[in-house]
Design a protein that fits this description.
The chain is α/β, with parallel strands linked by helices. The protein is built from seven helices and 15 strands.
Length: 318
């Protein structure tokens, strides 16, 4: 379904340890939302020099209770600090829902939901859908310290199990969340992993899951200045099922990707063998060695995922 642009009204703004949780009245977005999608918000007010919108993963929606949408953020820059200063009944220029959602298993499966910091927020709406499908849910949450672990209480109430790790050891095990992964995978007999975390963590999650042949659906956390695919500010290299690497946009082709198809070590670069890259072997090389996939072939994929399987077309046996 297509996104909408609305004036969302702030219903509540509450502090959750190191983070803030804002609830907007936005029924047109709430009724269309699917777990894993996000919204973008214009920040700073009508006369602001901050032209870029801010993207936020949706934590919770209540389409039957006023049509509310809740997201979680950390006030660490001028845009998010401005958001943290708003009050109830203020309005925000909001666009959503945006992006491709998490795929849901066809059959009941054992699912591990892994999140770091407030990146855990979108996993809880996903958990609701997974439980409706009859899936078992195990949580693995982490953060730098106890106040930066989001949703641990909810996870313990609603999950089959919930494990926590913090860098400083102030809550749960000391160390990275990935240090607990293998034990949980073995004990829970995990069928699929859903992860939302910084890129270095997603890289390690993918590597560990690969040793157990477990698929990972990763929500990739990269800056999204526009959220609609126009600015090309959120591109990353992803290999399609046809074996060709394309530079795709996280905001429209993601943010959820099959983790084994993301070229984590090449994030922030244009790999030499990507479609349309300098020296690409798939097309003729002109002066200076620039190869392209034929006339009009874009360096950044503008027409969809090509050989990359969209999340809504992926399924799992379980």
């Amino acid at each position: 379904m297509s996104p909408v642009q609305i004036r969302g009204t702030v219903l509540t703004l509450r502090r959750v340890d190191a983070y803030h949780a804002m609830t907007l009245v936005a029924p047109a977005i709430a009724t269309k939302f699917r777990p894993g999608q996000f919204i973008t918000i214009a920040v700073g007010g009508p006369e602001t020099p901050m032209l870029g919108r801010r993207a936020f993963a949706v934590h919770d929606v209540r389409p039957d209770h006023g049509g509310t949408v809740e997201f979680v953020f950390e006030a660490r820059g001028p845009g998010t600090r401005w958001l943290a200063g708003l009050r109830a009944r203020d309005t925000l220029d909001t666009v959503g829902p945006l992006g491709r959602p998490f795929p849901i298993p066809r059959d009941p499966s054992s699912c591990l939901l892994l999140g770091v910091g407030y990146g855990s927020a979108p996993l809880f709406a996903l958990a609701v859908r997974l439980r409706e499908r009859g899936c078992s849910i195990d949580y693995l949450l982490g953060g730098e310290s106890a106040d930066r672990v989001f949703g641990a209480l909810t996870a313990r109430r609603n999950g089959r199990s919930a494990a926590v790790a913090t860098t400083d050891g102030s809550f749960g095990a000391r160390g990275p969340v990935t240090g607990l992964m293998e034990q949980i995978i073995r004990e829970a007999r995990t069928d699929v992993i859903y992860a939302c975390a910084p890129v270095p963590v997603l890289r390690e999650v993918t590597a560990i899951a690969g040793r157990y042949d477990i698929p990972v659906q990763a929500s990739v956390d990269v800056p999204m200045p526009c959220g609609t695919g126009v600015c090309m500010g959120c591109v990353l290299p992803v290999t399609g099922t046809d074996g060709i690497t394309r530079i795709v946009r996280s905001c429209v082709d993601g943010p959820v990707f099959r983790a084994d198809l993301v070229r984590w070590d090449d994030m922030g670069t244009i790999p030499f063998d990507a479609l349309g890259a300098p020296g690409w072997a798939g097309g003729p090389a002109g002066p200076g060695g620039y190869g392209y996939g034929g006339p009009g072939s874009p360096l950044v994929s503008r027409g969809g995922l090509g050989g990359i399987v969209p999340p809504d077309q992926q399924s799992y046996a379980g």
